[in-house]
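Below is how a single chain appears once it has passed through the pipeline. First comes the sequence as given, then the structure the pipeline wrote out for it. We keep one example in the README because the format questions we get most often are answered faster by looking than by reading.
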Amino acid sequence: MPGDTLPVHVNRDSLHALEVPDAFETDGSFDIGVVNHGGSVHVHLHLDDDLSEIATVEASNHFVDGESQRAVHVSVEGAGEATGTLKIASAYGAETRYVTVRITEPEEEESTVEVDESLSEPQPREPDDGGDGGSATVAASPQLVVVGLGVAALAVAAALVVFVDDVVVLAGAVVVLVGVLVAGYIALAGE
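Resulting structure:
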């Protein structure tokens, strides 16, 4: 958002008359505020080469209705300082004025953060209830995971015994059953 406005008055004293300051200084983007005090007029704006290196005017020719105002934005996007000339012409050159424009480096604002002494003290912690105060998630213990996997293994072994009528499959199912029982005993004994 521009902070400064360069005032340009057109048609105040006479037809196509231009009133502008001799010099203008800013530290960033700015607006050219054209105020038309008379009939409709075209206003031409041109930045010289020095200013054009870091600044851009949104358009060079502007139609300004009678008894109206118009703001033309000038974007400053380069780093560094520049001084140059802005040419302002009314009614296709009937009147022409030049403004020396100086663009300076913006002043660095000192940014500070105030730290309260209470930040150096340990903060009380809320007890961890394993959830976030109402969510349905429950932290699974390793014992529950082992029991769940054992039940799944038993289900697979039982399905194989039913569908495959073989002594080897039956022996494998018994081994799985024994393994699940041992894992369950170890899991429950660990609590």
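The longest helix spans residues 167-189.

See the next section for the split statistics.
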